[in-house]
Amino acid sequence: MLTSKHSISAAKPLLERYFWPLLALIWFAATGLDRLWLHLDQRLPAWDQADYLNSALDHGRALGLLAGGGWQGWQPLLDLSPKIPPLASLLNGTVLAIAGDHPDQAAWALSLWFGLLLLVVALWGRELMGAGLGLGAALLCCLMPLLAELRVDYVLEIPVCASCTWALWLLGRWLKGGKWPQALAAAGAIAAALLIKQSALLVLLLPVLWVSLSALWLGGPRRLQLLAAMALVLALLLPWLQHNLVTTLGGTQRATLESAAREGDPNASSLAGWLWYPKRLPALVGELPLFGGIAGLLIATWRRPVAKKWFWLSGCLAAGALLTVLSPNKDPRYLAPLLPLLALVLARGWLALPLPLLGLGFVVAGGLTASTRARAIERQGTPPEPLEAIVRFLQAQKPMAARTLIVVPSTGSLNQHNVSYYGRRAGGQLVGRQLGNNPAQIPAALASAEQLLLGTGFQGSVGTEAQVFSDSIRNSGLFKLEQSWPKPWGGTFELWQRKQTAPKAKGFADRFPLLAAGLAEGPKGLTPLFDAIGVQHQLDGHRSYQVQVRQQALTELRRDPNNAKALWSLALLGVLQNRALEAEQWFARLEQLEPQNPWPPAYRAVVLNAAWQPWRARAVADAGQKRSANPVLEGLGDLSGALSGEIWRLGELQKSLPKAVQAVEQQLAK
User: Fold this and answer.
1) What SS3 class is residue 366?
2) Per-residue pLDDT tens for 295-312?
3) What is each CA distance from 147 to 5, 65, 379, 588, in whole angstroms?
4) In what order do the strands lie in the sheet with 479-486?
5) What is the pLDDT of residues 69-81, one digit of tens each?
6) For residues 172 and 348, what is the distance between their CA atoms, to the nearest angstrom?
7) 540: exposed, middle or buried (Cβ count in 10 Å: 0-12, 13-18, 19+)
8) Is 433 helix (H, G, I), strand (E, B) or coil?
9) What confidence tens digit (pLDDT) does each residue in 593-622 have?
């Protein structure tokens, strides 16, 4: 009888010979099970899932691939990804155009991303120790409960897993080989990962630094390769990053620091922070794959020391784990990009076990994962979830009419995000927006809202203020109950429609010039302005007022080139539409019109910095400070100067910036 070692050795030629068919079989099997799960599971996309589906739909429309959109140029395309990079949405939107826009059809994109992940893991494993390791690691990726869950969960973690693993593999090949094609391929993969989600940095940052320092140390052509690779990464990242820098920074802060504080996540300064992920690892990887792999690793290490070719993989795994633990925001999804690397390590351990135990372990692990996924299936309640019925009712008479539905409840099965997605499928133009968490929003809703979806019973994540808001709508006499739908677990959803006889407030386009002109008074004009705009963007999800504002302002300027209200309106529109240089031109006109007012040059300096032109911002702020001394202009001048390379202004910045902040706070307090 052959020993386990001899059996595996005898199987190696067969595994090498049938490597590609076996890898394809693993992917087909995983995809088939995923499709079956999606068919049985009847849940609707919740907040995150619907948000990413909307992003894919937006990008598919912007590319002209889906009904309801068309190519309008690069700037409108970049507008669609203000916080999360666009690559996954561009590719997923293309899949929507081919597979269909039902959420289950959209999940084909995840299957393709997972196929890329299996391909990279298998090739990396075959490079390390042959086809057996590559196929075993790919199989482990299919069996890990977290990855199995994410394969049918429309979020970005599977694309991040695939792109990060691909980038690390190519980066390691460049570190070892030092050839030009390897350097450029690694750079392209790194840029792709970062253009999917910023959290890829947690996995890539330290390995990239490792390879960069090695290239500098070794010298020769590697230094030129490093410069070329960095240039390629920057060339691919800068168009999106430059266009969306401010919103990206703000979104990253909310997604990490604010989210961690709100959810009470432990940080790395505590033992609980260091143990948060290790405690959850057995459930995320699977107890049998994890502990069986560790046992095999101990046996393999006892038989033979770890080869140097494993150092890169081990180092990447350790570096990614370190930064993931140090990150303030804790979520099992953030550990997902490390699981393919862990699968390669654990597969090495499993291959050291006796062959019968290896086969039995994979079968049992597969059964346990399948059982876990089966228990996660959610079937349709009775009555069914009413989201699709609500959308059909709203679109019955005018399916393609642009309209906004105010959604007060916010549950996983019905929220403003999935209303928007279902309302815009097949070219529809119905969007959902949320109001109700702030009583201050009640007057605007009573004055301008057309259609609102209220609820009875459980309201979801909204606060108690939502009940006050809903009661105000019901008791106002301005709206009538149009239709109601029962919830599966008690309560109803109610559609309230503004009565034809109910008065409406003056259009927001008419109020906009007066609000915009408030910017001339400095920061104290910002609060009422952005409070009003924030509510309006919920009442009018299509922001249709902006077209009218622009047309009115341009008409006024043709009559009077020095019309201050029109100039303020156009400058503010440029800011709201993320057109920094366009806004700068209007602020420059206002600066000429009101030379003693410090705020036009202050706003102009801000938008120039946002447009990555700090040298111009410095000149504008310094000139404005000479005409009308102001602590805000002084701080902006020093900040812009430091950003443009005048490092000698850093000392002045330490004094002027606190004064500028204090001046703004005093203005806001008035």
Assistant:
1) helix
2) 999 998 888 877 889 999
3) 30, 30, 22, 53
4) 430-433, 403-407, 451-455, 492-498, 479-486
5) 999 999 999 999 9
6) 18
7) buried
8) strand
9) 999 999 999 999 999 999 999 999 999 999
